[in-house]
Design goal:
- The protein is α+β, with helices and mostly antiparallel strands.
- The chain has one domain (5-99).
- It is 22% helix and 32% strand.
- The chain contains 2 helices and 6 strands.
- It has helices spanning 51-58, 77-90; strands at 5-8, 15-21, 31-38, 43-49, 69-71, 97-99.
- The longest helix has 14 residues, at 77-90.
- The chain is globular and about 40 Å long.
- The model has no long low-confidence stretch (mean pLDDT 95).
């Protein structure tokens, strides 16, 4: 997996920067790490999974646990931005992993 980092734009006033870490193979069946920097300086990380990716990862497993889990319809920028903005609106502290 590559460690490329790419910025995507959010117009949400609380979000100073939103970055995708790594490359996306199949936008409908993959996962990707995200780093969110808020305007107040705090940073949170997430991993966005598509339903197909979760289904594939769950084969022969009884459970799946991932800190900062986001489920998105696809790994398109629009879906990723929507999920992060939703997390911010609902209280990002509940969902993201605080980076120190």
């Amino acid at each position: 997996m590559s460690h490329n980092m790419r910025r995507i734009n959010s117009s949400h006033p609380a979000i100073a920067a939103l970055r995708i870490v790594g490359d996306i193979g199949n936008p409908l069946d993959d996962n990707v790490d995200l780093i969110v920097q808020l305007a107040d300086g705090r940073r949170f990380s997430f991993t966005a999974f598509t339903p197909a990716n979760l289904t594939r990862l769950m084969r022969r497993r009884l459970s799946f646990v991932s800190p900062g889990l986001l489920v998105v319809a696809s790994l398109a920028e629009e879906s990723l931005i929507d999920a992060i903005e939703d997390a911010v609106e609902q209280g990002i502290e509940q969902f993201g992993v605080l980076q120190r």
